[in-house]
Please model this.
Amino acid sequence: MKLTNYNPFGLTRADLNDWFQHPLAGFPSLSRFFSMDSPLGRLAADVHEDKDNFYASFEVPGVKKEDVKVELNDRLLSVTVTKKDKSGEQESSYTSTRSISVPESVKADAISAKIEDGILTVTLPKGEDRKGRSIEIA
Amino acid sequence: MNTCTTSACAPATTSSTPATEHLVKPRYDVRSSKDAYEVRVELPGVRKGDVKLDFERGLLTLKAQRQSTAQEGWQTLHRELNRLNYGLQLRVNAPVDQVAFTAKLEDGVLTVTLPVKEAAKPRTIEIG
Model:
């Protein structure tokens, strides 16, 4: 059995799939976990805002909510993902963390998070002084 | 991703993909058991309706679109998760059933199960 890439869309980088040629077939290679272009190596993130909230989104494909920890320490929002991988008898797990700093005026006790389609979205409600106020002129 | 304009590295088939379409190859892995091969493809942010999967003549072709994480009315402060088109094509040189394959998308991971043809499975022969 051999799966070979077919030069699909004009990609020139040879990408030989050699899981079938060695006894550890099926294990993701270690380089997957350390490569810089790997989304799980770095947990790629977006940050958006609207009038009421900041929103931080992270790529977490195949991760269940119980494997994610979201923490706010001072002004640092940290997301830690532990991914377990079971292949036959062997189990491996690895952890990846990404931190982003958030503006001071976030209501820390009202932060919420959800995972949908492999994207974790953390909603950080803005504190009063970030919402902007219109000041009446007496 | 290399882009190349000479004919030396053109796709092997004449593809109907417009030249402007930039496809990103998703990460994937393949596992096998005696009953099936399983291809798992990471497609974070892709919704169920935005995946197209074909399997014919031993060629598994996947295309999927991912939308932006921003919802209406959000301003972007920092962006790493772009809207993009995923594309992956694998040639399957294995005795699998080209009709009975199944696919499910869960938590941003697409799992494609390709059952091994009955005739290709190892058999134990009873000695009478």
